[in-house]
Amino acid sequence: MNHTIVLTEEEQREAHEQALRKATDEAYAKITHKSKSKPASNTDAANQQSLF
Q1: For the segment 3-51, what is each residue's pLDDT rounded down to a tens digit?
Q2: Full-prediction pTM beyond 0.90?
């Protein structure tokens, strides 16, 4: 079924604001999730066993 939904100016504005807020939140979550999941920079040296 194809129905045309007509939104008022206020409803269009609210939908636009919600879409912007959602995109911003998703981008922020993506950035913060990446930075938390990075391992320590020198883990190979710490895990390497010494011969002495």
Answers
A1: 998 999 999 999 999 999 999 999 999 999 876 555 555 556 566 777 7
A2: no
Nearest Cα residue to 11 out of 22, 3, 2, 19: 19
* SS3 sequence of 1-52: CCCCCCCCHHHHHHHHHHHHHHHHHHHHHHHHHHHHHCCCCCHHHHHCCCCC
Please tell me the distance from the alpha carbon of residue 49 to that of residue 8, in angstroms, as a whole number: 68
Q: Which two tokens stand for residue 16?
A: 């636009």
